[in-house]
Amino acid sequence: MEPYQSLTGAIASGSRGKTTAAFFDLDGTIIATHSVKDMFIERLVTGKVQSEEVLDMATMMVRYMLKSQDFAAGLRSSVSNMAGMDESEIIELGEKVNVERLAPQVFPEVRAIIRAHRARGHTLVVITSASRYQVAPVARDLGIEHVICTELEVKRGKFTGQLLGEPCYGPAKLKAARKFARDHRIAMKKSYFYSNGSEDIPLLEAVGHPVAITPDNKLRKVAERRGWPVHALDSRGWAGVSDLARTLATFGTALPTFAAGLPFRFLGGSARDTTNFSLASWASLATMIARLKLIVEGEEHLWSHRPAVFVFNHQSAMDMLICAKLLREDIVGVAKKEIQKQPLVGPVLRLAGTVFIDRSNVRDPKAALQPAVDAIAEGKSVVIAPEGTRSRDGKLGEFKRGAFHLAQQSGAPIVPIVIHNSLDALPNNSMIIRPAEVKVTVMKPIPTENWEFRSVAPQTRRIRNAYLKALRESESIPGAGSE
Q1: Per the confidence metrics, is the pTM higher than 0.85?
Q2: What is the Cβ-side half-sphere exposure of residue 256, based on CA atoms within 13 angstroms?
């Protein structure tokens, strides 16, 4: 089973080949924001917006929200303000806005839908009223080759303030899609269109598989009346009070849960049993509160060879919870000793039995790892992120060798845990947990009894390459999620 399969299952059983297209609207469908607004805000904060532009932008946005027939006129008026601007400046702006504002707002569910269509060999198209400067970076990052959008006229590297043709909106969007279908031999009745807006009803009616994504009220009523699939997504966009409360409760229950296990110690229970009880209790409670669903492949490898050195790729602050939920008992984490001084985190890690390493002891790395070696000798498994720190973009970083030296010193097997998409649950540049389905692949244990000191470097490279392969393969699996 793959993440978000409830949304992608029908695609996997449908037609194959390039004659089937998957058309996607942009604003409110692929991203939980309005790209023109984000472009405008970025220009506003840098002081590059003229006073007349503010009124035109506000008017256009109101017309868009009201689905007004005058939207096209408002768009033309807004574009006229760009006369004389350098195209290169707007291209650069679009890239910046994509990284900082749009990419974090891509619905992970829609990302999974896109992958499912790619796996069937479908032709992928973004079709939107937005300009190419807004949509092209998003489409590129999602691996979508074709973009149909509102085009702006450029002469000698500067905008003229005019459009090329009609705005790609309403009936004009349907016209543009049909032309694309003719030019690329697309069968519209086999094709899909995903949209959130009632202005797109003409194109939704023209394809064989219309799908409403978090639709406005009018589109929802039409979709329900005609039996079109409706997916209401809340994994991106504005965080509500419930999202904030869920986030606080997910992490805030850690210290009370561990403290709640202390009475068992006073009643004669061992420190180890008390820690196991508290860790398992917090992991189960916190994943439920966070609305985090784990889809685990190779779960048997979590238990077949213990004690072990469990290594995981570090994408998100949610990874600690994910590993706790997977491993549950007789485990210790490894952290730098400075973390002990942090409020809340330090006490929780100490209660959880974390092994703190003095990373400044570079002269004797073997001695620095000795507390973790001792934990393994006591029958506990060690959990460690070989990247050393969390990835900022979700991509796999270089592996440090500490975890692998630890395995070589202790003779414990290494069990790689591949976390594919924990950023879906806690996106970069966010402190709010969102509902998510996260895929985890647990690889077969790797024996280390015969490793020598010189084996560590090549084995580290080999294991990292296995991670890269697993993460690349998930890109082509329907429903897989990876940032």
Answers
A1: no
A2: 8
